[in-house]
Structures are given as structure tokens and as C-alpha cells.
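testing teh design pipeline on a random one, pls ignore if ur not involved
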């Protein structure tokens, strides 16, 4: 005789028809969590390639992964990002898109930073960083770091998968919101060629493309200028020389993360063996 019910619980211990067994009660009380696919599931497309054959794509997943328990109504969709490679693959410059459910947070963070800047003597001209001049650390704005946490987590997870990183750390001023403006009293339209003092830099576009003219991130080594749409983000090595192309009209706002990455032990071992 089978000692288990169809639900998998031992007979005599499950009253699923009434209140449900202890296992089912826990499932009803637990928060629905998102299922994330492994790193091998990221599709990578070389933007510089003229052909569109499958040789430029590692893997392509078009399905949504859905976790639903215990009811059909409670479900979470996770979209694995498609990764666009910029320039030669050895440069490790990648472009992604934030998932739709995080996009509304970008406007919320921008509005919070605008309100905070209005209370400062110099407005957005904070000189938090000498090159970019108009930066606000998200932690300095009440409530904004909490709002940015889901975005930070998503970007960190992407870095871990793409760069085989074990730990991704950020300092107190991260993330910070950067403002380029071609209008008003404080004009700061771009930034000259430079490199960042970090392992990896992530740039998240917070402005719509119709809010400014010009702009983009120029990489001499890739011979490319990368322009992001609202909600897209760019990740590149911090030591890679780049510049913020000047805008000639409007306002361009980005959220920046300077990250410090520790690679996985097995990755370092392979590299040392190769050397």
C-alpha cells in the first residue's frame, strides 16, 4: 500500500482537503521568490558583427521562467537578459536591459535626487567626483538607497554571471546619480577621456532618448560610441579608457556603480596555470 498522498505528504498527516498539511501551510505563508537561471543561459550577441547567424550567440532562451506556489495567481516572471557585446570580446564591454518591473524605480530615484539637489547651495554641482562634477550619492538622499536596492542586486547578479565573480562590492558613494545638462546655470555636458579606479563600472540610463541630443559613452579601443535607451545598462572594465560624449541639448541622467570584484577561486587557478 502506498504510504503517501498525491501531494507527497505521508498518509494520516495531511488534511489537504480541509486546512492543508503543515507543508502546504508553509507554502502559503512564504513569499514568492524569483527563480534565476544559471550563468550559461545568458545570450551574448556581438554588436559589431554584420551577420546575424547563430555563431554570435552562445545560447538563446526565449521562455519565461515562472515560479508559482501555492496558487496560480501568485507568480513571478524572470527575464534572463540578452547581452550585447561591444567591440572585440576581449574588451568585455556588455550592454543589458533592466527587467520591466524595475523601470519605474528609475523615475522615482531621479525625482528624489532632483528634490534633494534643490536643497543644496550648488544644486546638482556637488563635485562628488572632480571629472563629472554633477553627482549625487544615492545614500545621501533619504529613502533612495532602499528604492535602488533591487536595481543594485540585479546589476551585481549580472556582473557575477558575466565576469565569473564571486564577490561584488561597492563603497559608500555607490551608486551615484550623474547629471549631464546643456541648459541652465550649471552646464556640464560631458567628460573627457579617463579611466575609473575600480574593477568594473556599470552605467544605467535613467533618461528617455527624447530628453537630450548627443551623448553616449565613447571607447577608443572599441572604436565605438555606445548610446543607451531608458532602462538599459552598460558594464565595462574600470581600467578601460572611455569618455562621456557631450550633449548639445537637454538633460541626460545616469546611475553609476563603481564596483570592486573578486573572481572565483577556480577562475584564478585556471589563469595562473595558463601563465
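output:
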Amino acid at each position: 500500500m502506498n504510504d503517501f498522498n498525491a501531494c507527497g505528504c505521508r498518509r494520516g498527516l495531511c488534511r489537504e482537503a480541509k486546512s492543508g498539511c503543515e507543508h502546504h501551510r508553509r507554502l502559503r505563508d512564504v513569499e514568492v521568490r524569483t527563480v534565476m537561471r544559471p550563468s550559461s543561459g545568458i545570450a551574448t550577441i556581438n554588436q559589431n558583427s554584420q551577420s546575424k547567424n547563430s555563431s554570435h550567440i552562445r545560447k538563446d532562451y526565449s521562455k519565461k521562467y515562472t515560479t508559482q506556489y501555492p496558487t496560480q495567481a501568485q507568480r513571478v516572471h524572470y527575464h534572463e537578459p540578452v547581452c550585447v557585446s561591444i567591440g572585440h570580446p576581449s574588451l568585455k564591454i556588455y550592454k543589458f536591459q533592466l527587467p520591466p518591473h524595475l523601470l519605474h524605480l528609475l523615475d522615482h530615484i531621479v525625482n528624489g535626487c532632483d528634490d534633494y539637489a534643490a536643497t543644496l547651495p550648488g544644486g546638482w554641482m556637488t563635485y562628488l567626483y572632480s571629472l563629472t562634477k554633477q553627482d549625487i550619492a544615492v545614500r545621501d538622499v533619504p529613502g533612495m538607497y532602499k528604492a535602488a536596492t533591487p536595481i543594485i542586486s540585479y546589476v551585481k547578479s549580472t556582473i557575477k554571471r558575466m565576469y565569473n565573480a564571486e564577490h561584488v562590492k561597492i563603497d559608500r558613494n555607490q551608486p551615484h546619480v550623474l547629471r549631464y545638462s546643456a541648459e541652465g546655470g550649471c552646464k556640464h555636458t560631458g567628460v573627457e577621456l579617463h579611466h575609473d579606479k575600480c574593477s568594473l563600472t556599470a552605467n544605467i540610463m535613467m533618461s528617455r532618448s527624447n530628453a537630450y541630443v548627443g551623448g553616449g559613452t565613447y571607447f577608443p579601443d572599441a572604436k565605438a560610441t555606445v548610446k543607451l535607451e531608458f532602462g538599459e545598462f552598460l558594464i565595462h572594465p574600470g581600467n578601460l579608457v572611455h569618455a562621456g560624449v557631450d550633449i548639445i541639448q537637454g538633460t541626460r541622467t545616469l546611475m553609476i556603480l563603481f564596483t570592486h570584484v573578486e573572481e572565483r577561486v577556480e577562475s584564478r587557478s585556471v589563469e595562473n596555470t595558463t601563465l
